[in-house]
Specification:
alpha/beta; two-stranded antiparallel sheet; 20 helices; about 40% helix; globular; disordered N terminus
């Protein structure tokens, strides 16, 4: 999950008919043909400039598990083996999030962060999910503007253009990759994970997934409960919200973060000069938005609008960054010589893709490179193509009437003015073909460990709590005061690290939920 609109700006309605049947989830549990399970990966050093222990291979998986002897896809996998065979328990699959984030690089990254006793317990296994990176990448032929309009704000006068954008993305994806896109789903990726398990000769898998990876992991626990070992799900996706609800939750979750920021900034009014009370800080912010809506604020080579300022709610989950950015824009609006030395790096960071978008770009650069270090032939819009394939193809809960998006957006903008209209505006899923499978019900007990920062901007606390509730038998480790997307190993001093390490090395869940403070 990620925000993109504010990042670039602050740094420098008909339906498509289809006859595709919708299957129920139990019907779609076909096992792959035996030849997929008997594959022998040809492991080799991933890249000359990487450690020899970081190995890659490619295996085959069925495009359609209902027709396992039909078309196949390449699935790029990687590993770093345990250096202590006596302590080795098995394999741990890793997923960094998404949908649309490659994971081939993940073993090397996590090997550097994990304590030795955890590394010794597992071979760390990475993979690019189907359709992504080095795994038979798909594309939609989207231009830059079409890729950057992921969550437009709602205005009645621009809504027809939003509908055109959403329909155009759906049409282009169908035209370019329509024979593959219906099979780029979470359930099929979970099946691919089970093929990896079988190919590597393991009875079970352990797993560490962040963000979207928590939903992927939870789906695996329901589809393959007898093959689920130790699962850590960090920064939870609420299965009851996929996928429109996961966008809409940002509109409600940002409000307590915004209130927290106003208090923080008011306590430091001598430093940031935004306001001396929380009420004054909020008033100054909304005055800045109104000013930018009337007359865009010059900032470097940009003209920043009020919509641009509202477009990244994740900003307010870091009071420091929010204060720096708002102070800089306020000074620009007032044509004051404000303290730019501190502001420029923060605004530039947002401009280059934001906290989340920038990390995703680095991940893509790592994962989409062949052994010679040259970029893999993935389309420029590969990540976005996979993103829409999953969020539109996992569930049939998206409204099909464009008018409903207009009504919802107007209502949500009034109720949640920071981000409500962005969250509820129309998406390409309104024009997507119906899914081939139903959503995965969360009915089977799952003895997994969920992990959550209190102030996670992308998968808010309410979402993580929803995942915990959905997975009967799970335990939660909650870091009070924890900021940022991803808790475990995000900081050497995070209070979640010790209980997660203990679970991964012993397999024992905490007796109850754990609350700690960062």
């Amino acid at each position: 999950m990620r925000f993109k609109r504010l990042a670039p700006l602050l740094a420098t309605a008909g339906l498509v008919a289809t006859t595709v049947p919708v299957l129920t989830a139990p019907q779609a549990s076909a096992a792959p043909a035996a030849e997929y399970l008997r594959q022998k990966p040809a492991w080799h050093q991933c890249r000359p400039d990487r450690p020899a222990s970081y190995e890659c291979a490619t295996i085959k998986v069925p495009l359609d598990y209902q027709r396992p002897r039909g078309r196949t896809l390449d699935l790029a996998i990687s590993r770093m083996k345990s250096e202590n065979p006596a302590a080795r328990r098995g394999i741990m699959l890793l997923n960094p999030g998404g949908p649309g984030t490659p994971g081939l690089y993940r073993p090397m990254q996590m090997h550097e962060k994990m304590p030795k006793d955890v590394r010794d317990t597992y071979d760390l296994i990475g993979f690019d999910p189907r359709g992504l990176g080095a795994s038979s990448p798909i594309g939609c032929g989207l231009d830059q503007a079409e890729r950057n309009s992921e969550r437009p704000p709602y205005r009645p006068e621009t809504f027809p253009a939003d509908v055109t954008w959403a329909r155009t993305v759906a049409d282009k994806c169908r035209e370019k990759s329509g024979d593959v896109i219906p099979y780029i789903t979470t359930r099929n990726t979970a099946r691919d994970m089970d093929v990896i398990r079988a190919v590597l000769g393991e009875r079970k898998i352990s797993y560490l997934g962040y963000s979207y990876g928590t939903y992927l992991g939870s789906v695996y626990t329901q589809m393959f409960p007898s093959r689920t070992d130790r699962f850590v799900l960090d920064s939870g996706i609420d299965p009851g919200r996929i996928w429109r609800g996961m966008t809409q939750v940002w509109a409600t979750a940002v409000e307590p973060a915004f209130e927290r920021w106003t208090k923080w900034a008011a306590e430091r009014s001598d430093t940031y000069g935004i306001g001396a009370t929380p009420e004054a800080v909020a008033e100054a912010f909304w005055a800045l938005v109104a000013r930018a809506d009337r007359d865009p604020i010059p900032y470097g080579q940009l003209k920043v609008t009020g919509d641009d300022i509202r477009a990244d709610p994740s900003l307010f989950f870091s009071p420091l960054e929010a204060s720096i950015v708002v102070r800089a824009l306020k000074a620009a609006a007032e044509k004051a010589p404000g303290p730019t030395d501190e502001a420029i790096p923060e605004v530039t960071k947002l401009l280059a893709g934001g906290r989340v978008g920038g990390a995703r770009a680095e991940a893509a650069a790592e994962a989409t490179a062949d052994p010679a270090g040259e970029p893999a032939p993935a389309p420029d819009d590969n990540a976005m193509a996979v993103h829409w394939s999953v969020v539109c193809g996992d569930t049939d809960s998206w409204p099909r009437d464009p008018g409903q998006y207009a009504r919802d957006s107007a209502r949500e903008k009034a109720a949640h003015p920071l981000y409500g209209d962005f969250a509820s505006n129309i998406k390409p899923c309104a024009f997507w073909q119906p899914p081939l499978e139903a959503e995965t019900p969360m009915k089977t007990k799952a003895n997994v460990l969920t992990v959550q920062n209190e102030w996670d901007p992308m998968t808010p606390l309410s979402s993580g709590q929803g995942l915990h509730r959905a997975l009967k038998g799970s335990r939660m480790v909650l870091a009070l005061g924890g900021e940022g997307h991803g808790a475990y190993l995000s900081d050497a001093g995070s209070c979640v690290n010790a209980p997660v390490d203990a679970y991964l090395t012993t397999g024992r869940l905490p007796a109850g939920d754990v609350t700690c403070r960062n």
